[in-house]
UniProtKB/TrEMBL annotation:
It comes from Salana multivorans. GO terms for molecular function: DNA binding; sigma factor activity. Belongs to the sigma-70 factor family. ECF subfamily. InterPro entries: RNA_pol_sigma-70-like, RNA_pol_sigma-70_dom, RNA_pol_sigma70_r2, RNA_pol_sigma70_r4_t2, RNA_pol_sigma_r2, RNA_pol_sigma_r3/r4-like, WH-like_DNA-bd_sf. It holds the Pfam family Sigma70_r2. Keywords: Sigma factor, Transcription, Transcription regulation. GO terms for biological process: DNA-templated transcription initiation. Residues 11-75 form the RNA polymerase sigma-70 region domain. This is RNA polymerase sigma-70 factor (ECF subfamily).
Amino acid sequence: MSTDAERLNALWDAYAHRVQAYAMRHVDPDTAAEVVSETFLIAWRRLADVPGEPMPWLLVVARNTIRNAYRSRYRARALADELARIADVLPPVAEAAEDVALERDALLRGLAALTPREREALLLTSWDGLAAADAARVAGCSVSAFQVRLHRARRRLRAALHPDDDADGRSRRADPRAHAVIAWEGD
């Protein structure tokens, strides 16, 4: 057995019960066991930093481990509260998933109906986030030619997604829905 392993075993034998007692005063028994384990794992990793009188050092490590556990639990509770709040204002998942799937399918069908150049124009600006000048450079055309492609692509995609709209994009439906899939109105 190496001297490091012997030293850690000696630390464990002499101080584990005291670190356990300290942890039990601050947290539940399961968490206290985790605190002891984490404390001695840190002691093993930083064995050279453990002073000749290790008890205060071990208790500082245990205290820090307990604080980390509190912070983790606080963040978990805050996240759970936030998710519950969001769940209260969102439609049920099944409805939302169905709506998303329908819009996704419509968008994919609309993109498939475009010419390859029109599809590239839309994807360069919307998916890749390029400005028209940068997208034109990638597409290998002038900025004005690219803007024409982009305008035509948007118009054809809008027509595919909203067949009830007129040529100017105004809805002829009694109750038009706002779709997030055409968020590409501006450059």
